[in-house]
Amino acid sequence: MPKVTTETPARRSEGTLLVAAAGGGEEAFRLLTEPHRRALHLHCYRMLGSIHDADDALQETLLRAWRRLDRFEPRAPLAAWLHAIATNVCLTAIARRRRRPEVPVAEYEEEAWNERLLHLQPYPDLLLDELETRETVELAFVTAAQLLSPKQRAVLILRDVLDWSAKETAEALGDSVAAVNSALQRARAGLARARTLGAPQHLPARDADEHALLSRFMEAWDAVDVDRIVSLLARDAMMAMPPDPFYARGAEAIGAFFGAVPLEGHLEQIRLVPTAANRQPALAAYAWDPEAGEHRAYGVMVFALQTGGIAGIVGFADAALFERFGLPTGLEG
């Protein structure tokens, strides 16, 4: 009687690639890890809050996996093994960052942004899987996670985002189950407090309603009508611009910024193009460059919309982001 097996074709293919990769086959290793790279990159982004840092962490993760492939137990899920490596790569990266003063999450928003969130970057919707849970990629979650201790952040993401067990998490972090459960309890409590200091939560409305609100913002911008921009903002709206230590709270303060800072208030010289980041509406800004004779990539603004208007704007003055968003770096005319 032939032996009965429940091994799937995909599993057999993974096993074949694993044997080839373990034998030094670089192409086999690439094919083995390719299906996991996007999820690993997003995991690193959640841990680090920066798409550029996530790029580096992903490459280091794959390098470590290549070097340690002989330690992988084929009966274990490859995705979990790779995520465990990625988590520890990210923890090392966090430890290497320039140390900034610790700001207790019970203190003020401005200090939190100006001391501990300057590395923050947006994540293009272009890179997000359609099935990705919105709440765990929006800026409100990512910024709040950055305000947790590295260990709490790792435990929270492994347990509550990836749905790992306490035992799996403990094994990945080289810790005890009791320590992991304690860290998770503290992380959940800390996350609730940190959410008041990070980016406002985006409460999605109908696409048509979000589009209409952003269209009104763009029209007011083109008309250099700061008063109309202010009217679209919630009274206690916030704005930050990492990596610059800038923070503004309140519609009037944000209006004053737009009226004086971007190109000294000449908003008509900045063209806005709709895009999307972190499952939120966003606008890419192009500033007029007289030498180039065109509008050049300037920055990206990510919006948190709530009932009553715009609750938050996080601006990123980084032209290097445009390629990641699939956007041109220049616009004619």
In short:
This protein has 333 residues and is an alpha+beta fold. It folds into two domains: 9-194, RNA polymerase sigma factor, region 2, helix turn helix motif (Rna Polymerase Sigma Factor, Chain: A, Orthogonal Bundle); 207-332, Nuclear Transport Factor 2, Chain: A (Roll). It is 48% helix and 16% strand.
At CATH level 2, the architecture of the largest domain is Orthogonal Bundle
- Number of alpha- plus pi-helical segments: 14
Query: Which percent bin holds the helix content?
Result: 40-55%
Question: In terms of per-residue confidence, which ranges show pLDDT below 50 for 5 or more consecutive residues?
Answer: 1-10
Describe the structure.
- The protein is an alpha+beta fold and about 325 residues long.
- It folds into 2 domains: about 10-195, Rna Polymerase Sigma Factor, Chain: A (Orthogonal Bundle), CATH 1.10.1740; about 205-330, Roll (Nuclear Transport Factor 2, Chain: A).
- It has 14 helices and 7 strands.
Helix-strand blueprint:
Layout: H1 9-22, H2 26-33, H3 37-48, H4 51-67, H5 78-96, H6 109-116, H7 139-146, H8 150-161, H9 166-173, H10 177-194, H11 207-222, H12 226-231, E1 233-240, E2 247-249, H13 251-260, E3 270-277, E4 280-289, E5 294-306, E6 309-316, H14 321-324, E7 330-332
Parallel strand pairs: 1-6
Antiparallel strand pairs: 1-2, 3-4, 4-5, 5-6, 5-7
Helix pairs in contact: 1-2, 3-4, 3-5, 4-5, 7-10, 8-10, 9-10
Provide key terms for this protein.
14 helices; 333 residues; seven-stranded mixed sheet; Nuclear Transport Factor 2, Chain: A; Rna Polymerase Sigma Factor, Chain: A; alpha+beta
